[in-house]
Amino acid sequence: MRSERCRKRPSQVYCVLGSARSSAIGRSVLSIIGAGSFAYYTVKDRLPQILTKVIDTIHRNKKKFFEEYGKEGVEAEKKAISIFSKLRNEMQTNKPILPLTDNCQDTDIWNQYLDYQKTLLGNGEDPSWFRSPWLYVECYLYRRIQEGMSFSPPISEYDVFRDVKNESFFQSQQAMMALCTHLQELKKTIASLSKEQRQEEFYRLLQVSLWGNKCDLSISGGQDNSQKSSILASLESLKSFILVNNMDSLWNTLTKGKDVGSENALKTRVDIVLDNAGFELVTDFILADAILFFNLATEVHFHGKCIPWFVSDTTKHDFDWTIQQFLAVNHKWMSKCGQTWKENLKKGSWVYHENLFWTLPHEFWSMEKIAPDLYTELKKSDLIFFKGDLNYRKLTGDRKWDFTVPFSQALKTFHPAPLCSIRTLKADIQVGLQAGIGERLSASDANWMVSGKYGVIQFS
Ligand SMILES: O=P(O)(O)OC[C@@]1(O)O[C@H](CO)[C@@H](O)[C@@H]1O
Ligand SMILES: [Mn+2]
């Protein structure tokens, strides 16, 4: 299930326990699974629903496993189903969180983190599914799915979310065609655009990447959450739902000391920490393409997940498969995009990275200690985009900060480079709002923090 490159341990693999849970600042207490909270609903209802879909998926592919592996495949299907049924029971009956036993590269780090949770609870209590931080429990579920598959050879490499990710891709074809057509039109006219017009066009593609984040299969519990309509047509109407809009700061960071459009752009690197595969990944490809042809950077580095994660998060397979689909599709502009993107990877102006850190439970402020090689890599960037809600939760430590706490404060010591979160709100954490905004929204729309209706393009 894990590509060779992911076997690269974060160097100095150890778990810094003390600083990982720093003292609360302001009202920032951990997002716990309190009764009635969104976290509680997630663990009580949505995670079991996701696990049930995993079991159904494995059962549905039994014939395929038999064709591919003979009776070992059938045995493996049965074993995986029993493992996941037991896991679902553990979760639903609030059993203790168990140490991992699959002896992978990150097994020790996960088990050290569990020990740390025990010290936090104190009085010898065991962390359990409902008595642990939500962020930890949710990440742990996906790591247990990975463990369960690794105990079910020969189907260990099978991505239990493959079917729903592919389905979501095919359901979003129309929207993707519209985006690729728009991109090619833009490339035709770019030379005649003024600096302000380029800026405006870039802002549109940033917003497309933002609203692409609505297409996430974890929040939907695996239900179809594809992009049906052309997102470009709705940008104006969606603008008022952007609660923090730092696009000007982004533009200034990317264009400072550069004449936008001049070919001789200095060697500039932008990183995109990816989120969901499918439509959102395509919006990120389009943004990355524009960053190059607008001469805002000379390299774009992508960071994907080593294992299947939060249902729809992008793995290396998803990244390559998506480009292959674009190359193969019978649509002039989509295949043109696919060729450009394949070429970018070949000539190194696009680079794909993997690191186990992204599928650990840790807040990003402990990256420098847990995965110093990754932190050093990110320091080479001139601007890092963090896509999506889970990344936002890890950037802010999933603390219940006051809405008005500055974003840079919530990041604590995590600041390898100028960074920007592009995120639709799907968890009840938000910082950096003007005074009164959070309260006003809570009064008018009880679900404003978890519906995915609102978004931020938040820079630090
Ligand atoms: O990171 P993404 O794909 O934008 O969202 C992931 C997510 O759907 O999963 C969790 C809910 O189960 C939340 O962190 C968030 O809502
Ligand atoms: Mn995701």
Explained architecture:
This protein has helices at residues 17-20, 38-60, 62-69, 71-92, 107-121, 134-150, 162-171, 173-189, 195-211, 235-238, 247-255, 279-293, 316-328, 332-347, 367-370, 372-378, 389-395, 407-410, 437-444, and strands at residues 242-245, 269-273, 299-304, 350-354, 383-387, 419-424, 455-459. It has 460 residues and is α/β, with parallel strands linked by helices. The chain folds into two domains: 14-150, Transcription Elongation Factor S-II, Chain A, CATH 1.20.930; 162-459, Rossmann fold (3-Layer(aba) Sandwich). The protein has a seven-stranded mixed beta sheet with strand order 1-7-6-5-2-3-4, with helices on both faces. β2, α12 and β3 form a beta-alpha-beta unit. The radius of gyration is 22 Å and the shape is globular. The structure holds 1-O-phosphono-beta-D-fructofuranose and manganese (II) ion. Residues 42, 46, 138, 213, 216, 218-219, 275-276, 310, 388-390, 393, 426-427 line the site of 1-O-phosphono-beta-D-fructofuranose.
Biggest sheet strand order reads 1-7-6-5-2-3-4
User: Mean pLDDT across all residues, rounded?
Assistant: 91
Specify the CATH architecture of the largest domain: 3-Layer(aba) Sandwich
E-strand count: 7
Helix content: 40-55%
Shape field: globular
Can you say what the CATH homologous superfamily of the largest domain is? Uncharacterised protein PF01937, DUF89, domain 3
CATH topology of the largest domain: Rossmann fold
Q: How many structurally independent domains?
A: 2
CATH class of the largest domain: Alpha Beta
Profile the largest sheet: 7 strands, mixed
Which hetero ligands occur in this complex?
Answer: 1-O-phosphono-beta-D-fructofuranose, manganese (II) ion
